[in-house]
Design a protein that fits this description.
- This protein is an alpha/beta fold.
- It folds into 2 domains: about 140 residues, Medium-chain alcohol dehydrogenases, catalytic domain (Quinone Oxidoreductase, Chain A, domain 1, Alpha-Beta Complex), CATH 3.90.180.10; about 140 residues, 3-Layer(aba) Sandwich (Rossmann fold).
- Helix content is about 30%, strand content about 25%.
- The strands form 3 sheets. Strands 3, 4, 5, 6, 7, 14 and 15 form a 7-stranded mixed sheet that branches. Strands 10-9-8-11-12-13 form a 6-stranded parallel sheet, sandwiched between helices. A two-stranded antiparallel ribbon has the order 1-2.
- Helix 2 crosses helix 3 and helix 2 packs across helix 9.
- The N and C termini lie close together (about 10 Å).
């Protein structure tokens, strides 16, 4: 089979599209013939050696793949060949055939496309967990979404609206701001002049919950725009800059700084994670949420797709097609 291989840690341009041996399932594992593969910002960090985990090289990146079960290992009773599924992985998803522990695989309803299934895993799963469990977003509150045109940002907009919030989206270009409004944001703002705009749009009260996958200077602006008892969610650092917090702001404004590490959540709270997935899948079935697929590329173009995401050029989800 064909796969994308990271031979050693370095720039994404070093990724190699090559023939490797087909995987075979061991006990408790399944093999999936991939039909759609999700591309995520952390994939780019992983191949550069900048992510929280560092698998031994060579390895294939990729945290999500959807397709059809082709083989099952001993002890697997919940799936049979032919089942439509999506897998959540640590890595290994950029391949025509994907090996996964059966307990990391989810059955798909016929109404859900393979592409949407990939989008709902990491990006939408992260945003859902951030807003529901970590941010405890309430109906009627104001949600500020930074990096709002990315896959997690658009997910945060849609999930925030589903939870009854007023959503202020922030994105870097007119095109991205328009996409945020089309996706349901009540207001879309640029980063320039953001501090004054947030004062104006909240009547000086501030925002209740901030979803921040960006970091950098936008974090400081958000910290100064918090409402009393607000929750500032630290999701990631797409800007490349890990910001520092003037902790007197938290004291004076009485807001909480809340870390969001979705990988730790899925590993440590599998029952709650499964419940979140059921809610997301139900919202999708009811038409409440619908991922935006930004572009589709052949598997061989994984490096270019990743670089576009690292350069913050994507609006929504990027999918690789084997």
């Amino acid at each position: 089979m064909k796969a994308i291989i990271c031979p050693d840690y370095g720039p994404v341009s070093n990724l190699d599209y090559r023939e490797i041996s087909d995987p075979h399932p061991g006990a408790g594992e399944v093999v999936i013939d991939a039909k759609a593969i999700g591309v995520n910002f952390p994939d780019g960090l992983l191949v550069q050696g900048l992510y929280q985990m560092k698998p031994p090289t060579p390895f294939s990146p990729g945290m999500e793949a959807a397709g059809v079960v082709s083989e099952v290992g001993d002890g697997v009773s919940q799936f049979i060949p032919g089942d439509r599924v999506v897998a959540l992985l640590d890595h290994g998803g950029y391949a025509e055939k994907v090996l996964s522990p059966a307990n990391r695989v989810h059955a798909l309803p016929d109404s859900m496309s393979f592409e949407d299934a990939c989008a709902l895993m990491c990006a939408w799963g992260t945003s859902h967990y951030a807003l529901k469990q970590r941010g405890q977003l309430q109906s009627g509150e104001t949600l500020l979404v930074l990096g709002a045109a990315g896959s997690t940002g658009l997910a945060a907009i849609a999930i925030g609206k589903a939870m009854g919030a007023r959503v202020i989206a922030v994105a870097s270009t007119d095109e991205k701001q328009a996409a945020c409004r089309d996706f349901g944001a009540d207001i879309a703002l640029p980063y320039e002049g953001l501090r004054e705009a947030l004062k104006r749009e909240t009547g000086g009260r501030g925002v209740d919950v901030v979803f921040d996958p960006v970091g950098g200077q936008a974090f400081e602006v958000a910290a100064r725009a918090m409402a009393r008892h607000g929750r500032l969610l630290v999701v990631g650092f797409a800007s490349g800059e890990i910001p520092k917090l003037a902790v007197n702001l938290a004291l004076l404004k009485e807001f909480s700084l809340v870390g969001v590490f979705w990988g730790a959540f899925t590993a440590n709270e599998p029952e709650l994670y499964a419940a979140n997935n059921r809610e997301l899948f139900a919202w999708h079935a009811d038409g409440v949420v619908k991922p935006r697929i930004d572009e589709r590329r052949p598997l061989s173009e994984a490096a270019a797709a990743l670089q576009r995401i690292l350069d913050r050029g994507a609006i929504g989800k990027t999918i690789l097609i084997p």
